[in-house]
Amino acid sequence: MEVEDKRGMPWQGKSGRLLKKVYRRLGVDLFEDCLNINAVNCRPTSDQTPKNYEIDCCRKSINQIIDDCQPKVIVLLGGSALYALLGRRWKRDLGGILKWRGFTIPDRDFKAWICPTFHPSYVERLEGKEAEVVWTQDLEQAIKKVNTPLPLFKKPRITVLETLEALKDIKGSLVAFDYETTGIKPHAPGHRIVCAAVAVNENECFVFMMPKNKKALQPFIDFLANPMIGKMAHNMKFEETWSV
């Protein structure tokens, strides 16, 4: 960043040359086609990676620039950029760039695709071409999103069921369900399913307290047993254990 400060432009070192080269190969000019923003407004001491509190101080101005420019795609290069944009939402367990790279995230707040990947300096430090190949694929995938409309966001429709008769009308090739229980082990004394949710699509779900009466529970049992309806869950092993 010292070279960048002297020249008054970003990406003036080796990592910048690598980024320009790869972007050029993908048909993008780093300075003509892109707006380049650092995670912090001032160069950290001794070119160190910015601390989270430093990024927190600069986040408001960065968000304002993004709001003003309204980009279609936001490429997050490295962990500092990832924290700058997503750290305000993920208070815990944000993780590093390895957890997020390769995703193309439709973001409602910025009305843009958010595409995290490695910082070019990280790619440059690694021996071999594998990291550069993966990194290039991430950037190519991000560039393709420029002409991809964001998915339509609808207000979720959540129906609280008093009886489970509505579950008889569920149709679809894939439905998600989830349990809230009093513990992890279904056969432990006193453990039971308290309530459940069944999502029939990305915007509609049913939630209900789990009946203790088998007759009242029968529509849910039939739903689980229906081979024509595919089932999925965030932790299928857990839900499956409680469903047996």
UniProtKB/TrEMBL annotation:
GO terms for biological process: DNA repair. GO terms for molecular function: 4 iron, 4 sulfur cluster binding; deaminated base DNA N-glycosylase activity; metal ion binding; nucleic acid binding. Coiled coil: none annotated. InterPro entries: RNaseH-like_sf, RNaseH_sf, UDG_Type-4/5, Uracil-DNA_glycosylase-like, Uracil-DNA_glycosylase-like_sf. The keyword Calcium does not apply. Keywords: 4Fe-4S, DNA damage, DNA repair, Hydrolase, Iron, Iron-sulfur, Metal-binding. The keyword 4Fe-4S applies. Residues 4-130 form the Uracil-DNA glycosylase-like domain. This is Uracil-DNA glycosylase-like domain-containing protein. It comes from marine sediment metagenome.
